Amino acid sequence: MADLSVKMAGVPFKNPIIPASGTFGFGREYTDYYPVSVLGGMSLKGTTLHQRAGNPPPRIAETPSGMLNSVGLQNPGIDAFLAHELPLIANEDTVKIANVAGSTVEDCEEIARKLEGTAIDMIELNISCPNVKQGGVAFGVDPKMAGAVTRAVRENTTKPLMVKLSPNVTDITEIARAVEAEGADAVSLINTLLGMRIDINTRRPILKNNTGGMSGPAVFPIALRMVWQVANAVKIPVSGMGGVSTWKDAVEMMMAGATTVQIGAALFQNPMAPVEIIEGMNAWLDEQGIQSVSEIIGSVRPW
Amino acid sequence: MLQNEKLEKYLIVKKEMLAKSCVRLTIRCPEIAKKASAGQFAHVRANGFMLRRPISISEIDKEEGTIRLVFEVRGEGTAVIAELRAGDTIDMLAPLGNGFTLEKGKKVVLLGGGIGTPPMLEVAKFYGADATVITGFRSASAVILQDDFKKTGANVVLCTDDGTAGEHGFVTAPLARVLEEGNVDLVCACGPNGMLKGVVSLAKEHGVSCEVSLEERMGCGVGACLVCACKSVKNGEEYYARVCKDGPVFNAEEVML
Predict the structure, then answer these.
(1) Distance of CA B170 to the CA centre of its chain
(2) Mutate which of A21, A23, A29 to test chain B, going by most B C-beta atoms within 10 A?
(3) Coil vs helix vs strand at B217
(4) Residue B232 maps to which CATH number?
(5) Residue A244's domain spans which residues?
(6) Is the CB of residue A267 less than 8 Å from the CB of residue B220?
(7) How far apart are CA A245 and CA A10, in angstroms?
(8) Which of A122, A209, B202, B203 has its CB 3.0 to 4.6 Å from that of B210, i.e. a possible disulfide?
(9) Pair A53, A297: CB distance under 8 Å
(10) Cα separation of A45 and B215, whole Å?
């Protein structure tokens, strides 16, 4: 059994695998399949200051080797999360990551303050949701805005701070460097790529929101490339995600420079995906005679 | 370690065509059959596709350890599932969601519209002679499951939109007659939205409680991703409920169709 533990932003993870925000609820929906304690961590559903209804349905569409979603950050708000959701998972032996999504800088600051002193181990600041009109990706496509919101949250939290980046930009490394400069302890990437599908019979977009965020195996090579670029551009650790569905994908992500790997859309096809990835990775490390998974982080040998 | 019976692949023991593009699969899955209840669904993998397809459970045989799924080929995903044959295995998560109220002694009216008809069969088996089953289809060629419904002992009424079989018209006409006669405790329905609206408003008019089974494009199937939203009301406040986890069967008072 190889040592699967990694450390990211000072936080110890028993293994590098984390279900991604928006695909794992608040950590209770998959407990019929496995206890969350087998996971390195879990990134909880994006939470805003006030409750959000989300977008009208349909909110999902199939794409070749992938999917689009336009949930629109439906969530009960930070107070309801702290009162009704967090207590149910507070004692779980896994890294609990709160995904913070504000429509304004002040909202993000206030959510961060409310998370102080709670069982949350780490904040993932979401500046990259493509499905909301305010905040979200509006923060994530401009280095100045990304830096400003990162600084604002940094000043209001003692918890390790990870910033989740949007791929819908010309140069993702520029945003990564901006948030690093303003105090981010880690970056996670990629959020979904903006996409669209049309029903040719009705001439209507399938998503009621017209556009949505694309994820799934189809985006994996793009995500991998961006993780590699960002890992080479910043000194802080990277949490890699985007289309990871097998243990081999996860190994590629880590070789590209990811310290942890998040699993999203793959859960919809196979709820056991995170567990199978952990087991597959472990077997491969043993077979290769690699003592610790951390040895493979950033180990790609580029031409 | 950590294997779960929910994720095994299950053997298809029988495949039948009930109408053009309408398939019935009988699947051996004792653990699922043991837990399943009328109105719940299976989230079925379509090979080569990213997203699973939710299909309601039509029948449950706990002794035989089988369930039956009836579905219509609607698109590429269901076409792939329809290619499966007896002897093949099927990858499904089940049973998922909440089913219909099953309380002995209640007098019920069960309504099914088109491919919304199959889940009503297991409900009809429970209520037997205490049920009136009203099903509606586009035309005679689309009619399914009538003999199965008759075998349950229920009073069975058939309607078609074009009058080629049974009564000419929608299921709401016979429903109105049955409700007028009184002595109905519960109305349960599954079908297109237009039909459900008509059913819900008639039930409300007669002060009879009503349950509806809804359909929406789904992601995870277990309540985690919030994709299959349906507008609902709780304590006067509107919100989006999850069809997969809070439903697919809802009290009609809670949902806004």
Answers:
(1) 18
(2) A29
(3) coil
(4) 2.10.240.10
(5) 6-296
(6) yes
(7) 27
(8) B203
(9) no
(10) 24
At B50, which CATH number? 2.40.30.10
CATH classification at residue B158: 3.40.50.80
Assembly ipTM = 0.92
Contacts of A288-293 with CB under 8 Å at 24 or more apart are: A290/A2, A291/A2, A291/A3, A292/A2, A292/A3, A292/A5, A293/A2, A293/A3, A293/A4, A293/A5, A293/A6, A293/A15, A293/A16, A293/A254
Cβ atoms of residues A219 and A243 within 8 Å: yes
Q: Which amino acid is at A226?
A: M
Query: Across the interface, do B224 and A29 touch by the CB < 8 Å criterion?
Result: yes
Question: How high is the mean pLDDT of chain A?
Answer: 96
Q: How far is CA B187 from CA A2, B130, B152, B203, in A?
A: 58, 12, 17, 7
Tokens representing residue B44 in the block: 């079925």
Q: Is A108 a catalytic residue?
A: no
Number of domains in chain A: 1
The tally of CA atoms less than 13 A away on the side-chain side of residue A220 is 24
Distance in angstroms (rounded) separating the CA atoms of residues A34 and A38:
7
Record: contact B7-A23, CB cut-off 8 A: no
Q: What is the pLDDT of residues B212-255, one digit of tens each?
A: 999 999 999 999 999 999 999 988 889 999 999 999 999 999 99
Residues A189, A72: Cα–Cα separation, whole Å? 19
Contact B68, B28 (CB under 8 A): no
CA geometry: angle B111, B112, B118, nearest 5 deg? 130
Read off the pLDDT of residues B30-71 as tens digits, 9 standing for 90 and up: 999 999 999 999 999 999 999 999 999 999 999 999 999 999
Q: Which residue out of A268, A269, A276 would a mutagenesis test of the B interface target, given it has the greatest number of B Cβ atoms within 10 Å?
A: A268
What is the distance between the alpha carbons of residues A88 and A96, in angstroms, rounded to a whole number? 12
Which pLDDT value is given to residue A102?
Answer: 86
Q: Which residue has the tokens 């590209």?
A: A256
Helix (H) / strand (E) containing B118: helix B118-127
Q: Which candidate in A11, A71, A129, A214 is catalytic?
A: A129
A-chain residues within 8 Å CB-CB of B216? 57-58
What sign results for the dihedral spanned by CA atoms B231, B234, B238, B241? Answer: negative
Residue type, A170: T
Contacts of B167 (CB under 8 A, 6+ apart): B157, B158, B159, B160, B173, B174
Q: Pull the structure tokens for residue A253.
A: 């992500």
